[in-house]
Amino acid sequence: MSERVAVIDLGSNSARLIILHIYANGAYNLVYHQKESVRLGEGMGRDQMLQPAAIERALSALRNCGQMCRIMKVDTILAVATAAVRNTRNGPDFLALAEKVTGLPIQAISGESEALLGYLGATNTLDVRDGVFFDLGGGSTEISLVRDRKMIEAISLPIGAVNLSDEFKTQDKVSKTTLAHLCGFIDRQLKKAPWLQAMSLPLVGIGGTARNIAKMDQARKNYPFAKVHNYRMGPIALEDLFRLITSANLVQRKRMSGLSSERGDIIVAGIAVVKRLFEQVGASNLIISGCGVREGLFFRHYLRHDYTPDVIPDILSHSTLNMLRFYKVNEQHALHVTDMTMRLFDGWAPLHHLDARDRKLLYSAAMLHDIGISINYYDHTRHSAYLVENARLFGLTHREQILTAVIAGWHSNISAKLLRNRLYNEFLDETDWTKARKMASILAVANSFDSTHRQLITNPMASVSPNTATVVVSTDGDCSLEIQAVEKQRKAFQRELGAELQVVFK
User: Fold this and answer.
1) Where are the beta strands (DSSP E) in 11-126?
2) Are residues 370 and 326 in the same domain?
3) Are 334 and 480 contained in the same domain?
4) pTM to 2 decimals?
């Protein structure tokens, strides 16, 4: 049974809807995304009441969400409201009105629940075992301490980009005195979590402010990859961006590349929270997560029968298998080729001198080497490279994903076409290209062993002797076509790995 799941996140700054389709084979994919700025937390003041104009903006956005859910024939709706609703006196009345007007079952969640969902969204999509996760929204910031991929501390603090902007009037030009008062207030709030001090861990940023910081840094550096998830910034880059933003007025900020125009008036408060948190933690770097509360809600629903507590053990393997099933290529062939590739990699370790991390990249490339067939069989190797480059593969750095794409694109022969790709050359140096050639050559041999997709060749036993890479395989039936395919790989194999390929068929 397939299922269409809608996730709605009504925050203090924006209302977001994502719709994901879960297919009968278990694969899932994002099929729709909608965002509307609602500024629900705007103008609440000290009486903590949602204002009529903000309520109307939110209701309008929710009506649109409900209409899209009906148009897209959604089966399941998961809808939550965060700080702007839970912290206001008329929040319950607003939720009752919203459900009456839109028909959406929206639930206000606690700060602790919001922190948990943000953690689930990030930890299931980022290869970060230990870190401080923060979800900076319009009305609050949820902060979690994660050790060995487990959330062991969490706190929700009333420091959001919208409410701080209202309180300290930082929408336009900001004086040094105002900025000092803002940072002092943030520091006092952060002291409520003494476990944050000098952790010397990566800081993982969730939410629109974190994503905009990444986009601005990418624009300043002419970063060639249009992806913010798992983008990384050091302390110098963050400090430079902080100075640039806080020294500009609103008109100047709205012209800054990478910054959403609707966020220009709240980015000062937002980046101030990030910078003070970075310094309190003594963070090694800032890692941006493109996934948060919405993905956390989805994963909790999707994984409810498989894992407890909703944490995927190996996110790279999981996302690789998900992409394989989404593209609906020959799964049996992909699994068989991958198994043989891994055996060859292990047996020929003294020859290629690659490491355990390289092995992970080769695993994903082997699993996905044929997905380009879903576009067009002719030149499908190049299509595979493109799809791997743009796939939602979790657990890889941007450079590693590009390297994996090249390996997949070279799974039958090493073509010069990929060498001319500007993006690949921006990321990969000569060492990376050499690695790609070695791994692609190993994959090409394994793929040749199953060139007819019949799994007639099995159980490869690989070994190395001086100037020779030997593999002994078991055969079942007429393997003449597979033998011919392997013969075509001998010359390239010797060129890239510096050894003669010797295959013994049993």
Assistant:
1) 14-22, 28-37, 76-81, 106-108
2) yes
3) yes
4) 0.93
